[in-house]
Design a protein that fits this description.
The chain has 2 domains: 127 residues, no CATH class; 188 residues, no CATH class. 53% of the residues lie in helices and 9% in strands. It is built from 18 helices and 7 strands. The strands form 2 sheets. The chain has a 5-stranded mixed β-sheet. Helix 11 packs across helix 14.
C-alpha cells in the first residue's frame, strides 16, 4: 500500500509513544497524551473536549527522522488496532456519508454529483459498495491511500517496531486504562482526573459535535441545508451507539441552532437531553452498532470482500480479526 510514514503521539516526560492510526482510537490517544502533558489536573478534562481538528494539528506528534531516536528513548510504546471491516465502515460514515474533502475526492473519481435530499442536496451520491471498490482500486493501482484506509499494520510499521502494548479499539476504555497503568510519572490525582474524563459521555458527544461543526462550516457548499446535515449527524450517532436508533431526529429542537462552533456545548446538551427518554445499556449499544455494521455489509459483493481480505491481510493475521464481515460469520 502506498501511504504516509508512521506518526506518533509523544510525551517525553512520561516516556509514552503511541502510534496514530485514524479510525482506531487515535483521537482518544491524542487527548490522553495531551492530558498527560498539562501542568494542572484542572486542565485534564478540557483535553478530552478537543475536536479532532485540534487533536490532530501536529502538537505532541513525531514522525520522519525523529522517530528512531524517540523510540529508543521511550519507556512504553503503544498501538491500537481495529477490525478492518468496522474501520472501513466508520471511515465511510464519517468521511463520506457526512462531509469532507474525501467525499469530494471519491465523487470526482466516480464522476458523481450531489446526493439529493428532500428537493435539496447534501454530500455526494456514493454508496458503501462504491467506496469499498474505490479502496481496492487505490490498493491495486498503488495510488497513495488516505490514512483512514491504510491497514493499521502498515500505519504503525509493525514489522520494524516492537510495541510493548497492543490494544483493540473494540475495548478501548480498558486499553486506555492499561496504558495509564504502565505509563511513568503519572500522579494518582492525574490518573483520577483522566479516568473520569475518558468515561464522560458528555465529552464523547461534545468532541464529535465540535468536529462535525468544524467539517460542516468548512464544507458548507456541499450541503447548504443545515437541517439535512443535522439529521445525517443524528443518524451517525445512532450508528455509533450514542443515541437509540428508535429515537426520531428531533428537528424541532435542532432548528433553533445556527450550527456554528460556539453552539457546540448547547447542541451536546440538547442531544443528551433527548437521549434520556430512551437510554441504551452497554449491551444494547454494542448490539445496535453491530446491527448497522452487519446491514452495511449484507449486500456487498463477495468479489469485493475477497479483495479486501488481501488488502488488509496483515491486520486480519496479526491482530486476530475474522476475515469475514459480521453479516457472514453471524449467519454461519
Amino acid at each position: 500500500i502506498k501511504a504516509r510514514t508512521p506518526v506518533f503521539f509523544y510525551s517525553k516526560y512520561n516516556g509514552l509513544l503511541a502510534c496514530k492510526s485514524p479510525k482506531a482510537g487515535s483521537t482518544l490517544l491524542g487527548a490522553l497524551v495531551r492530558a498527560l502533558t498539562r501542568k494542572s489536573d484542572n486542565e485534564v478534562f478540557d483535553m478530552f473536549l478537543l475536536g479532532r481538528n485540534e487533536i490532530h494539528n501536529g502538537l505532541n506528534e513525531v514522525f520522519g527522522p525523529m522517530t528512531a531516536k524517540v523510540i529508543k528513548e521511550s519507556a512504553l510504546t503503544v498501538m491500537v488496532t481495529r477490525d478492518p471491516f468496522s474501520r472501513l465502515y466508520s471511515t465511510f460514515i464519517d468521511k463520506y456519508f457526512l462531509l469532507g474533502r474525501l467525499g469530494r475526492e471519491i465523487a470526482t473519481h466516480l464522476k458523481r454529483g450531489f446526493k439529493e435530499e428532500n428537493e435539496d442536496y447534501c454530500g455526494y451520491d456514493v454508496t458503501f459498495q462504491e467506496f469499498l471498490d474505490y479502496v481496492v482500486y487505490l490498493a491495486e493501482n498503488m495510488v497513495e491511500m488516505n490514512e483512514h484506509m491504510v491497514p493499521v499494520a502498515q500505519l504503525c510499521d509493525v514489522c520494524n517496531i516492537k510495541y510493548d502494548l497492543v490494544c483493540r479499539q473494540e475495548n478501548l476504555t480498558q486499553g486506555a486504562e492499561e496504558v495509564l497503568r504502565l505509563t511513568n510519572n503519572v500522579t494518582s490525582s492525574r490518573l483520577d482526573a483522566m479516568r473520569k474524563s475518558m468515561t464522560s459521555k458528555y465529552a464523547s458527544v461534545f468532541t464529535l459535535v465540535s468536529s462535525h461543526l468544524f467539517d460542516y462550516n468548512n464544507n458548507r457548499q456541499d450541503c447548504p441545508n443545515k437541517m439535512i446535515f443535522m439529521a445525517k449527524m443524528w443518524k451517525t450517532f445512532a450508528i455509533q451507539g450514542l443515541v437509540n436508533s428508535g429515537l426520531d431526529f428531533p428537528e424541532h429542537i435542532f432548528s433553533q441552532f445556527s450550527f456554528v462552533a460556539r453552539e457546540a456545548h448547547n447542541i451536546t446538551s440538547a442531544i443528551l437531553q433527548v437521549t434520556k427518554s430512551k437510554p441504551l445499556s452497554k449491551v444494547n449499544r454494542r448490539l445496535q452498532r453491530l446491527k448497522f455494521l452487519s446491514e452495511a455489509y449484507r449486500d456487498i459483493r463477495w468479489q469485493t470482500i475477497a479483495k479486501l481480505q488481501k488488502v488488509y491481510y496483515l491486520d486480519f493475521l496479526l491482530f486476530g480479526y475474522s476475515k469475514l464481515p459480521p453479516t457472514y460469520y453471524s449467519e454461519r
